Amino acid sequence: MKTLQKTLLALATGSLLAVSAQAAVGYGNGYTGQPYAGVKVGQFDLDVDGADDPTAYGVYGGYNFDPNFGIEAEYVGSDDADYRGGNIDAKTYGAYGTYRYAFPNTGLYAKGKLGVAKTEVEGDFVSGVNRVSFSEDDTNIAGGVGLGYSVNPDFSVEAEYDMLGSDADLMTVGAQLKF
After folding, report:
1. Cβ-count burial of 33 within 10 angstroms (0-12 exposed, 13-18 middle, 19+ buried)?
2. In the beta sheet, which residues pair with residue 78?
3. Residues 7 and 151 sit within 8 Å (Cβ to Cβ)
4. CA angle 112, 77, 163 (to 5 degrees)
5. Domain span including residue 91
6. How far apart are CA 119 and CA 46, in angstroms?
7. Where are the beta strands (DSSP E) in 27-167?
8. Which of 25, 81, 109, 125 is placed for a possible disulfide with 54 were both Cys, Cβ 3.0 to 4.6 Å?
9. Taking the CB of residue 1, how many other CB atoms lie within 10 A of it?
10. Which CATH number fits the domain that encloses residue 70?
11. Mean pLDDT of 71-79
12. Which residue would you say has higher pLDDT here, 62 or 14?
């Protein structure tokens, strides 16, 4: 595992453990912080000519410090998609600060996130009689926007569009359980 991956995973794990330990701490405004975990599925939009867009699957977790501000970490990987007689796949690791705006009396909320993400794209293709392999990774400032619906105080569904840098975007729908 490369150093940046280890750093991102350590930061995400440490942050989630720290905020989980504070889950019962009140902030003086009647709100107690709330950790959450979720799953998502969607599609990568890769900037690779001739490649099909791979289906994405991911997990994420975070912590809302108050009803509006929080942190989130995620991992999203993909299946293999067709690419010039071979295949291509992608994965991304991200850590974000989040902001949520709840629309009054509806259960709907808008979500924005900004942070850093590492995206890795690997594949192979046929060029003449040779099979050519490639691997690219890029770490960038990343962000996303989404719309969610709180089914009840402990369960939400979300749709998101994430911009992961110059080579990839990600569109997902997901569900999260709040603790």
Report:
1. middle
2. 56
3. no
4. 30
5. 3-178
6. 10
7. 34-46, 55-64, 69-78, 81-83, 86-102, 108-127, 130-152, 155-163
8. 81
9. 6
10. 2.40.160.20
11. 96
12. 62
In the DSSP assignment, the letter for residue 164 is: -
The SS3 of residue 30 is coil
- pLDDT tens, 130-177? 888 888 889 999 999 999 999 998 999 999 999 998 678 999 999 999
Query: Closest Cα to residue 49, out of 105, 116, 110, 123?
Result: 123
Tokens of 73: 């970490």
**Location of structure tokens 């600060």:** 97
Question: Which tokens belong to 130?
Answer: 């040779």
- Entry pTM: 0.79
* 59 vs 80: CA distance, rounded Å: 18
Instruction: Name the residue with higher pLDDT: 82 or 76.
Output: 76
Q: Are 42 and 78 in contact (CB under 8 A)?
A: no
Q: Which two tokens stand for residue 97?
A: 């600060």
Residue 43 CA to residue 138 CA, distance in Å, equals: 18
Q: What is the pLDDT of residues 82-140, one digit of tens each?
A: 888 889 999 999 999 999 999 999 999 999 999 999 999 999 888 888 888 888 889 99
